[in-house]
Amino acid sequence: MRSIRLFLIASIVATLILFNFVAALQGYQSSMNEADILFDNQMLDLARLVSNLDVSNASSKDLRLGNDLAFQIWSGEQLLAASNNAPEQALQNFNPGFEYTNFDGYRWRTFTRFEAPLNRWVIVAERTDLRFVLAENVVLQSILPLLLGIPLVGLLIWVIVSHGLRPLQQLSSDLKNKGASDLSPILSADSRIELDQVIESINGFIQRLSTVMEREKRFSADAAHELRTPMSALKVQLHNLSKEIDANDESFLQLQQGVDRMQHLIEQLLSLYRATPEQFANNCKTLDLYKITQDQLADLYPNFEKKRQNIELIGDSSDIEADQFALETLLSNLLVNANRYTPEGGEIVVGIHDLGDEICLSVEDNGPGIPDSEKTRVFDRFYRVDSKDDSSRSPGCGLGLTIVSHIAELHHARVELKDSSFASGSAFCVYFKKKR
Description:
Blueprint: H1 4-51, E1 69-75, E2 78-82, E3 97-103, E4 106-115, E5 120-127, H2 128-164, H3 166-176, H4 193-242, H5 250-274, H6 277-283, E6 284-288, H7 289-306, E7 310-315, E8 319-323, H8 324-341, E9 347-354, E10 358-365, H9 400-410, E11 414-419, E12 426-433
Parallel strand pairs: 7-9
Antiparallel strand pairs: 1-2, 1-5, 3-4, 4-5, 6-8, 9-10, 10-12, 11-12
């Protein structure tokens, strides 16, 4: 049972029911024993009364005591008197005490008494089924309120347990309502002693998590900002150096490629750092996905033209709620990724599709594609798909698709990697919720 409330209620109610059952069973047995003693005492009194009957009258042999009582008075082998429902033979052997016998289709409790002064036997009998019914009615009337009270007790236990678990529900609500970036300690004025340790442990974990995240963010921001200045200086020096030496020299090209790769890494680190939930919430607005895609294609078109790639945009205007910078970064990374891994003269199709409840942004190419064994890893940080294509030498750091996945998550969208509609290649599809 996964619910603490249901477990506690079920356990307590089951314990009460078991306890009440055992107590009721014990009480029933004790009550039945007491009832037997009471009815046996009544039979003793009845035997005394019967022994005082005048048996000289002939009508005494046919007395009516009711269907549940019978008696006989014997003197030796002679029946002196009997109730109208008693048989002609002796109800019981002539042995003093209580016994059981059967006649007239019922089970009877009998009591035999010898009257020494009168030299006669008195036998009285009482139907056991009637005495048991009467005794059970008495016992059940005392137990019935206890049984009927179990649902009321269960409801009362439910209320008490629910009230007792309210601080735990409040703690759960506090944790659920915390924002993704809210790493402040949990303060609960209505906490119980049992929850103090839990809250203290959670706050300790939050503090450690806050320290780690702050250290990571500070490192990324500081490293990117600090590296931008020397990178700018390097770019200037490379430009100046290109005028003094052969710009097509292999060593110079490798140096320039390394600087470009490092600059790209710095920009991606800054993009990853800037794409935070707080920034997204503050800058979110209605944007035309088709228009933003057009603008990004225009900005990056020289890259596609350089590799003589044919790129096509299909679809219509579609409004979504998004942060413009984050959306532009997502598009830029998908387009640069397609440009990088599509060979010269290749085909790239960018589509904006209205799927009813969702808007699908797809970028597919006819490049070499991604092996099935690597599809689950392409969104990992710093992971790059191995390729023998020379285009893979262009600047890249393995953060592009990680940033795409992160930005999609900020927009409550999802990213799927599929096979391209071309003979080879990959298709990245981002599904945004349509603006209502």
